[in-house]
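PROTEIN–LIGAND DATA SHEET

This sheet pairs a single protein chain with one bound small molecule, NAP, given as SMILES. Inputs appear in the order they were entered. The predicted three-dimensional arrangement of chain and ligand is reported afterwards as a token string under its own label.
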Amino acid sequence: MLLKGKNIAITGSGRGLGRAIALACAKEGANIGLTSRTLEQLNNVKRETEELGTGVKVVVQNGDITKYEEVEEIFRVFHEELGLLNGVIANAGASWMASAHEVPPEKFAMVINANILGVFYTFRAAYPYLKKDDKNNKARFIITGSAVYPSVMGRFSSYTASKYGVVGLQKELATEYKRENIIVNMILPTQVDTKLLRGRRAGDGNKPPGVLDPEELNDYYLFLMSDYANRMNDELIYPSYFEAARKFIADAPGDKKDNWEVFQDYLKEKSPRVFDNVKKFGNLMDFILIRSK
Ligand SMILES: NC(=O)c1ccc[n+]([C@@H]2O[C@H](COP(=O)([O-])OP(=O)(O)OC[C@H]3O[C@@H](n4cnc5c(N)ncnc54)[C@H](OP(=O)(O)O)[C@@H]3O)[C@@H](O)[C@H]2O)c1
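PREDICTION REPORTED AS:
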């Protein structure tokens, strides 16, 4: 098991990406702390996690990520129940779609608060409980960003502003805490079939082409939590680059996809553009190659 015995807290884990990440971490042997505002959803995920039969410990504590005293309480409980944390995934997030002049000011603030302040609160409240004493097994702080950075969708001013802003926060944290054995990285997905993107239609089986299932992002989070990524800090990981590489993995002859060392020449020849996008992340490509066997 990839994460056996690790303690991992995941915000926004009642549904969507957070739920999928929580189940994936538990399947790999991690004890997990689940949090969002909706207790019923968290309890459902707890039940699903326990049904995996891996015997991991699952702690549920609901709260609002934009209220610091609630975030403090969440991490106090996680620490009390799980002990020191090996990793925290700051994943909770919100969105609002409308032309800028039509966005109610309180909704703009709500999105900024969830997506920036919520990440800062998560880091601040988790910091005392991160396991920072082992440079060979560093504490992980992973942020779910968005591939809207560095581009623009239109009609998502608050969301775009927040996801640009949180990159700045990530860079600060990565720089400030590297000497304390905390590494800070971000995963920036494109479109995923969740309530945030598709509202009540999420998971209805009719997602538009190109929209990923939440589970398709699990490998990126598992990688960043694993020993493979112990030296990785201050990176922005765009899953779409690796999803493009996966298509070439599927078509490659067996002897060309044993590991990154052999696969990179194949990929460079087939698609110099895809190769260029992933070449910096040999460890992640190795991880994907192993898991796609
Ligand atoms: N779906 C996409 O296309 C997409 C693409 C790129 C990035 N992302 C990012 O992925 C992350 C997860 O979103 P998702 O797509 O999985 O959406 P989702 O299904 O709506 O899940 C969002 C999660 O965040 C929680 N949350 C929202 N506001 C909160 C608050 N104030 N306090 C505590 N928890 C809060 C929600 O729970 P409660 O409402 O119960 O609190 C829920 O568990 C977000 O950061 C989002 O920006 C999504």
